[in-house]
């Protein structure tokens, strides 16, 4: 995800449109370009803005429902802005048995978010619960930007979140 630092709403809109135009130019002649368009858009913005779907639909003559069909089918796509740091708490069977739910509750409290998939107001963190990360032997597991932290506890997770907040940049993506 590239950093976008916009000065005002008009400039933000102009830069978004310019970005959409560049993405369309790259994919205009390719068959099956809907997924590629969405991947590039998400790479650019960190999520798929509604404006992107509207722009691509009009520019390419493809029904917006086709875009939304792809976006809602594939879990890799996100329709809401996500945080700079993605904190995923595993609550699969092994992690759940070893306290995954308590860890998830602590992360929610520490980040001040109410629900799975929610992003902090400053867009520094997105919290999500995942069902299994395939690391049952080191349960419970917390992922930060896909980096696994093993045998976590609620207190250990609070320390990790506190450290990430202090660093301001979090773990490397």
Tell me the distance between the termini. 10 Å
CATH superfamily of the largest domain: Glutaredoxin
Structural class: alpha+beta
**Tally of separate helices:** 7
Q: Determine the oligomeric state from the structure.
A: single chain
User: How many domains?
Assistant: 2
How large is the share of residues in beta strands? 5-15%
Global outline? elongated
CATH topology of the largest domain: Glutaredoxin
Descriptive key words:
single chain, 173 residues, alpha+beta, Glutaredoxin, 2 domains, 4-stranded mixed sheet, 7 helices
Describe this structure in words.
The chain has 2 domains: 9-73; 85-167, Glutaredoxin (3-Layer(aba) Sandwich), CATH 3.40.30. A hairpin with a 2-residue loop joins strand 3 (142-144) and strand 4 (147-149). It is built from 7 helices and 4 strands, in the order H-H-H-H-E-H-H-E-E-E-H. It has a 4-stranded mixed beta sheet with strand order 2-1-3-4, covered by helices on one side. It is of the alpha+beta class. Helix 1 (9-27) packs antiparallel against helix 2 and helix 6 (100-111) packs parallel to helix 7 (154-167).
Write a short abstract of this structure:
With 173 residues, the protein is α+β, with helices and mostly antiparallel strands. It has helices spanning 9-27, 33-45, 50-60, 64-73, 93-97, 100-111, 154-167, and strands spanning 85-90, 125-130, 142-144, 147-149. The protein has two domains: 9-73; 85-167, 3-Layer(aba) Sandwich (Glutaredoxin).
Give a topology summary:
Blueprint: H1 9-27, H2 33-45, H3 50-60, H4 64-73, E1 85-90, H5 93-97, H6 100-111, E2 125-130, E3 142-144, E4 147-149, H7 154-167
Parallel strand pairs: 1-2
Antiparallel strand pairs: 1-3, 3-4
């Amino acid at each position: 995800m590239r950093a976008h630092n916009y000065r005002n709403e008009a400039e933000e809109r102009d830069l978004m449109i310019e970005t959409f135009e560049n993405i369309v130019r790259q994919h205009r002649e390719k068959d099956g370009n809907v997924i590629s368009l969405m991947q590039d858009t998400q790479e650019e913005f960190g999520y798929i803005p509604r404006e992107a779907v509207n722009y691509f639909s009009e520019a390419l003559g493809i029904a917006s429902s086709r875009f939304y069909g792809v976006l809602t089918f594939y879990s890799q796509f996100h329709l809401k802005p996500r945080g700079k740091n993605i904190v995923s708490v595993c609550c699969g069977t092994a992690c759940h048995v070893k306290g995954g739910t308590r860890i998830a509750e602590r992360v929610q409290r520490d980040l001040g978010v109410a629900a799975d998939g929610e992003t902090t107001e400053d867009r520094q963190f997105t919290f999500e619960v995942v069902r299994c990360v395939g690391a049952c032997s080191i349960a419970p597991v917390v992922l930060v930007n896909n980096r696994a932290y093993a045998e976590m506890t609620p207190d250990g997770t609070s320390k990790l979140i506190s450290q990430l907040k202090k660093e301001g940049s979090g773990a490397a993506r």
